[in-house]
Every structure is written in structure tokens, then in C-alpha cells.
Design goal:
- Three copies of one chain form a homotrimer.
- By secondary structure, chain A is mainly alpha-helical.
- Helix content of chain A is 70%, strand content 0%.
- In chain A, helix 5 runs parallel beside helix 8 and helix 5 runs antiparallel to helix 9.
- At the A-B interface, helix 6, helix 7 and helix 8 of A face helix 1, helix 2, helix 3 and helix 4 of B.
Chain lengths: 220, 220, 220
């Protein structure tokens, strides 16, 4: 796994962009694989859930933008990394005392990086602010949604009532939209991902909450 | 929101077609957002569920026909309308005494209009009767299926045992297929949507039912 | 339905490939329709579930490879066959004393044939071993996953803990990858499908099992 902290010094922008994509892939693979371990899937089930989580968002991004076959099928690196991340999660699963926290941490990292990559691709297609937000958000949350559907779990994306999740992704994608032209690609992607991570962090502290509509029968 | 009753007098066919697409978008957004309110999603969750319901059918239609990036990403109008419809549903949610009925009404309207649009697009690709039926039906029911999957509800499409739902969509799409060449585009779309609405209305009165296969253990 | 046992003598390779695709379509349609009957869907619901199961894997395969509109929309044969298979299952459903076994048998056949077709298509795109495995596996398991999601069942793909399912598909696809260039297309497809069927058969006897990770709280 590449060292995320060395990214500031990379000479080649493409390398930097790719490194972020790779970290997001491994992070999402571990999040999916850990859920599989918790649900007592066998080794291959854990692998599949890890891989699908890792490449799902990118597959949605590439399919929506007509970029077929999607990158993860053309470049074997992604699936190798997803397999490596999944196997690591399978191997060390029992030592992770708190599954929830580990899954959540990797999930946030994957969300942030994939949202930024998807938003960046959407700006290149000349999409407007809503299009970029939506495409970026789908790229970010797509893998997790597929993971939860396959694991027959309630999709976390919409149900984390106490936290901002899809909101964070949409905000990060919007940041990419408004900063385009002002920053180089790597800066754009890091800024978008940073917005997602900061919003996720702040919302988990309970500092920000979105309103929930009260229903007549519950407001009595 | 455009006035649906003025559609008969529109001079420009494209405007008419677009108006129908827009009404379907708002209707499906409200159906999705109301489900989100009922399930106590927060504001952004309601927005996302509304938008995904509104654009899901069109996204499936465009992806299947290779029309990428899908229209809803290229033309910001759709997402703005979906957001407006979702916010309206969020704001007035508590005053809607009967959620079920309101969701169902908007859902039928969205189903009818999206089925017709999808079927029309499929005829332009030169597809046969089954291809047009299936593509039209998927365009019509796709948004609702994605809505139900994300809300972790049993997909209504196949479970409304007392009503015709997907059947109505398939029949409407088939009408578009057989009427092509005999009617202008706007007429085709209105006819297809009309067939869907009539079948839905009739079936909700309980006048029409499809057979259910009895199982050995239940026929004793 | 074509006779699978006459396939060895077909003069025309294309006919052979197509015959396999057709058998897989009918088999998956029956698997989906039988699940619909068991869940007490009405006639049209059974038809839709049968058709979606039958064409789902191919739709995923074609969408991922940019082959739009997907084959099942362009060639009406597939939907006619899916309808015929679904109606047969609906008609004879009550006489099938053991639903589970029948669904499982047809499911294995569909899995094997669709995996092989998907893998073959992926090799033509020049994909690597992981890409071919993943694309083949998705083509094979896609229809069943969509079937289970629509029927609100736990997706069988990852939950059959006592059997190899997705593993069998991935192995069959990998066989297609490594045999390419050594066998003609029909041989490739039959080999890939054969690997899937053998692994499924062996694993159902309980001779092969994959490890499941023990969790701290369950290893006490």
C-alpha cells in the first residue's frame, strides 16, 4: 500500500491521482471484507464482497460516463489491490477489537477519495454543479450501497441519521466543481476528499445535524 | 411545475415531450421523498431518495441504450426539479394525512410518463415488441425499484399482488410499439402513458386480477 | 428448448454458442419464475422475475463492455425464451415436489453457461485473468443477484456458506482465460461451463469447503 503521507512530494501528478485511487480501493475493499467477516461469509465470499465494494463506485462512474469497459476491468491493479485488502482484512479480522470503527474509518477514506475522483471525471465531461455533485456522490457511495445490498444490510448511506454521509460526499464533489480551474488536478482531488473527511469527522462528533421531518402521529 | 392541462395546446412537440418528462420527474421525486419522510430520513436523505427515484428510470434507460452520460447528468433541469419536488414533499409532508395514497398517486404518474418515454426511445432504436415492452417497463419501474432497494423496503413492483403494476407499464409500452407510425411523438407518449394510467386505475378498483399459482401445500 | 446432448455434433460453431446461451436463458428463467411462484407472485410478476433473472447477467455483461443496447433487447429470441421458460415453470409449478432442488438445478446450469459466455466476451476485449474472472463471474451471478434483490431474499451468491457458488463461477471464467488460444470458441465455452458444474457438484456433496474467519466472541 503506498504511503499517503508522501503524496505531497510526488513529482508526477498522474502518479498522485493514481495513488489516491489505489488507497481508496484498498480502503473500500477492507471495509467490504470486514463486513463479510462479521457476517461469517467464507473466504471467497469475503473476497467478492471486498472486491465489489472496492470497484463498485468506479464501475458506476465509468458506466454512467460511457467509459467502457470500466477501468477496473482494464487495469488489473485495482482487483489485485482489492484482493490484497480483502485478504488482509480476513487474516487480521479477529484482532480488530472494534469492527465497526475499523469499517467506518476505511469507509470514510474510500468515500472521500472515490467521490473526488468521480467529481473530477464529471467536470471533464463539462457537467454542471448538480451533475458533478450527483456523479461524484454516486461514485463515492456506490460501492458501499452495493456492499450493503449484497450483504442484505440496510444501506448505511441513507440510514446514518446521526451523521452526514451522502451529504459529505455531495459537498466534496461540489467543492471540486467550484475549485476547477483554480487548482491543478491533484489539488482538486485532495481538496474534494478533504472536504468529505472534514464533514464526516465534524458530523461524527455530533456538531452538525440535518433536520428530520416530524410525522403527525409522532408529534402528538 | 408546468401545468399538465395546457399540454394539448403546445405548439412545439419537443416542448410537450419535455413537459411530460418533467412532470414524471417531479412526481417520482415526491413519491421517493415521501417514502423518505415516512422512514424518518434526514433532510439530505429525503433529497437523495427523491432524486434517485426521479432519475433512476431515466438512468437505466440511457445506460441500456448507450446514451451516456445519461440525460439527467447533462441537463441540470431534471435534478433541480427533483430537488424542488423532494423539498416540497419534505415541507408539506406532515399535512399529507394519507402518505400511502399520495405516494401511490405520484408513483402512478411517474410510472406512466417514464414508461412512455422509455418505450418511445426504444422504438427509435428499432427494437421489436418485446424489446420495447421491456425497455419501457424498466424505464418506468426502475426509479421505484431503486427507491425501494435503498429504503430497504420490499420492492413494490412485484409484490402488489392485488394490483397490476409492471403489467400496466408493459402494456403501455406495447401500445407505443403498435401505434408507432400512426401517431406523432407527443400522441404516442400520451397514448402510452394513458394506457398505463387506465390499467392502474381499473386494477385498483379490483376489477382485474392476474392468476396466482397455488402451491401443493396451500391447495390442500 | 434445444437438446443439449446434440451440441457435440453441431456443424456450425455459432449455432453451438447460441444454443448454450439459449439453454442458460431458459434455465435461469425457470429458476426465477419458480422463486416467484413460491413467493406467490401473480402471473405477470412470475414472468418479470423469470425474464429479469434470465437476461440480467447478459445485461450486466453487455453494459460493462459497452455493447449497447444489450443483446437481449436487440434479439427478441431471448425474451421469448425467457417467457416460455417462465410460463412452463408457472404451469408445472405445483407438480415440482421439491422447489428448492429444481430451482437449484436450473440455477447451476444458467450460472455455468452465462459465466462461460461472459468470460469468452471478456477475453475478446483483451482483459487480463482477473478482469476475465470478474466479468465472467458477474455475468454468471448477475441474474441471480437481481432475482434475489427483487424478491427481497438474501442474495444466495454470498450466503451459501456450505457450497461454492461464486467461487465456481470465478474458476470457470479463469479456465476460459487460460484455455484461450488452445481451444475453439465452442470448446472454450463448454470447458468453462463444465468447470463451473463440476465444482458446484463436488461442493454440494460437501467435499470442499472454504474457511470462515472465526470472530473473537465466537472462538471463546
Amino acid at each position: 500500500m503506498p504511503d499517503p503521507f508522501s503524496l505531497g512530494s510526488v513529482a508526477n501528478i498522474q502518479t498522485g491521482l493514481r495513488a489516491l485511487d489505489i488507497i481508496g480501493t484498498v480502503a473500500f475493499a477492507m471495509s467490504g471484507a470486514l463486513l463479510g467477516v462479521r457476517k461469517r461469509f467464507d473466504l471467497f465470499g469475503v473476497l467478492v464482497l471486498g472486491c465489489v465494494t472496492a470497484v463498485g463506485g468506479g464501475a458506476i462512474r465509468d458506466t454512467l460516463t460511457g467509459n467502457t469497459p470500466p477501468l477496473f476491468l482494464r487495469d488489473e491493479t485495482y482487483l489485485w489491490l482489492a484482493i490484497a485488502g480483502s485478504l488482509t482484512a480476513f487474516a487480521f479480522g479477529t484482532r480488530l477489537a472494534r469492527f465497526e470503527r475499523a469499517i467506518s474509518l476505511f469507509d470514510t477514506l474510500g468515500l472521500a477519495l472515490f467521490t473526488a475522483t468521480g467529481a473530477l471525471g464529471a467536470t471533464k465531461l463539462g457537467l454542471g454543479p448538480l451533475g458533478v455533485s450527483f456523479a461524484g456522490m454516486l461514485s463515492g457511495v456506490g460501492g458501499g450501497i452495493i456492499r450493503d445490498l449484497l450483504a442484505h444490510e440496510v444501506p448505511e448511506v441513507l440510514y446514518r441519521r446521526d451523521q452526514l454521509y451522502a451529504t459529505a460526499a455531495a459537498a466534496g464533489a461540489l467543492a471540486v466543481y467550484f475549485l476547477q480551474g483554480h487548482l491543478p488536478q491533484l489539488g482538486l482531488q485532495l481538496s474534494g476528499a478533504g472536504v468529505v473527511i472534514v464533514i464526516r469527522f465534524v458530523s461524527r462528533r455530533g456538531w452538525v445535524k440535518l433536520p428530520v421531518r416530524r410525522l403527525p402521529d409522532s408529534s402528538a
